[in-house]
Every structure is written in C-alpha cells, then in structure tokens.
Design a protein that fits this description.
single chain; three-stranded antiparallel sheet
Length: about 210
Amino acid sequence: MSLTLSSRDLDLITTLTGRVRLLAVSQLKALWEVPECGQRSFGHRLNRLANAGLIELHIINAHVLNPTSPLFAWQPNGPEPDPIAIARKARRRWRFAATPTLVCTAGALAANLMGSTACGLPKLEHRDHDLLLAAAYLQLRLRRAAVAELWIGEHMLPKAGYRIKDPDAFLRDPSGKVLFVVESSGSYSPAQVESFHEHCVEHDLPYELW
C-alpha cells in the first residue's frame, strides 16, 4: 500500500520510537487538538498507518492520568524532597479502576526504520507507567514545545550500568548537556523516591518526578 507520510505522521512515528513507547489515542487528540468534527478522518489516518505497519492500535485496560505538573522537581542545591509526602501523592492517583483504552505503539516497520527497540505493546506491568510518562511528555509539548524536541527516551540510550535505574527520559541540548531528566513514578514507595533522588544527586541531574 502506497502511503505518503505527512509531518503529523512523522511526528507520531518519531514520538513512539524515540520518546515514549505508548500513547493513548485520547492523548494524541489533545496533543494535536483534534476537533470532534475531525475525529473520523483522524481515526481513518491512524488505521492507514496501522495497515502500513508503522503503528499498532490496541485496546487495553489501563489508567490514563492527566497530571498538569510533576509531583516534585529538583535542581542541584535546591530543596530536598519529602519522600513520604511524594509517595502518598503518587499512590493516591491509582484509586480508580482501569478502563478499556485505545492506545497506539510503534509498529515493527517504524522501529526498524528509526533504529529503535520500541515496538508493540509494553509488558502488562509497564503500561500504566508508560502512559503516565506520555502524559508528562504531552504537558511539555503543550507548554514548552521547543524543549520537548530535546526529549530522548531511555530506550534510545545505553544503560547507565548494572542494576542502576536509568531515568525514563533525558532532555539534552544540541551540545549533549543534560538539561533535566524525567521519571514516571508510578506508585513509588518512599524508599524508591529517595533512591531516585540520590541517583540524580550523585550524577548532578536536575529532574522532574511525575
């Protein structure tokens, strides 16, 4: 099937292969400001991309959170986090049931073309985590689009080391300097919040914990 890719198609493929592994279609609609009257053509376009092997569409049971700001943001020499308070806020968000959710991922063809390991649905236990990370990316795109262009997903970078928890995303300027990192906290415990903070302090990494 012949398919000419639009700038929006390329944006979606780049996002799913290099930035986040999973996007709810509702997040895409918000990102691209798809009006209700245009949702039919929007859905048709997603189906064409799926038929071409560039994306995959799935209905999964998931929680789609819509935070507008991180739970905590830190800069070197800034205030220390309160792990107990942060963990309490993180866990409070998951008190409602998962619902059937239409999501999209990169397809095998897109992953091969972009040199990415992101392809198909993440493992079941990672899906809510990845959708929360996508929500953080969405907020950055909506508020600071130029900065969002610097977002690099963890899966596009070498591992930091054995049994070291890499942040989920790095924001790097053209010189390679890390401006800050982003972490999807899921339902982190106080110990996990503290451990992530200590890692970022050790490596001098400003961060946003979502």
